[in-house]
Amino acid sequence: MKSKKPGWRLLAIAAVLVLYSSCDRQTLYHHYEPTSRDGWERSDTLLFTVTKAQKRAVVQREVELRVTKAYPFKNLHLVVEQTTLPQHQFRRDTINCMLTTSDGRIIGDGISLYQYRFPLSDISLNEGDSLCIHVSHDMKREILHGISDIGIRLTAY
């Protein structure tokens, strides 16, 4: 007599669905740059260099943060400047990253180091395009403590 194992069939179907859905998006670039242990100064611009695109794509851009409890504010204002080469197209985004709720509860994921992800507008890249992305803070305080790392994630879809 043949035993029926519906659990295996469901698992196989789920695996196929995951494989197909993961094909819709492709991470083109994902990198973090650390800030200084002495604090992130306004003049300390972080540089991210993205090598040439292999094919034409619409790209979702995101800024990621790792923040400790030492950060004294509820939000963080970032300036993200991007140059697309070889066209020398320049784009500047200023974003307000909310890190806590109005009553001070932390929004990010984590225990002692909190992770955040903030979307920027999508861009189109042509085959052979590369990017230079500069990130700096635009807070009133010159030096910020508690910002551990800043990351950039680019995902094609």
Count of alpha and pi helical runs = 1
| Total number of domains | 1
Return the CATH class: Mainly Beta
Spell out the helices and strands N to C: HEEEEEEEEEEE
Radius of gyration: 20 Å
- Largest sheet properties: 5 strands, antiparallel
Strands, total number: 11
Question: Do you know the CATH architecture?
Answer: Sandwich
Shape: globular
Q: Which structural class do the helices and strands define?
A: mainly beta
Unreliable stretches: none
Query: Approximately how much beta-strand content do the residues carry?
Result: over 45%
CATH topology type: Jelly Rolls
In which range does the helix fraction lie?
10-25%
Describe this structure in a few short sentences:
The chain is mainly beta and 157 residues long.
Care to describe what's here?
With 157 residues, the chain is mainly β. The chain has a single domain (27-156), classed as Jelly Rolls, CATH 2.60.120. Helix content is 11%, strand content 50%. The chain contains 1 helix and 11 strands. It has one helix at 6-22; strands at 26-34, 40-41, 46-50, 57-68, 75-85, 89-98, 113-119, 123-125, 130-137, 143-144, 147-156. Strands 1, 4, 7, 8 and 11 form a 5-stranded antiparallel sheet that branches. The chain is globular and about 40 Å long. It starts with 5 loop residues before the first helix and ends with a strand.
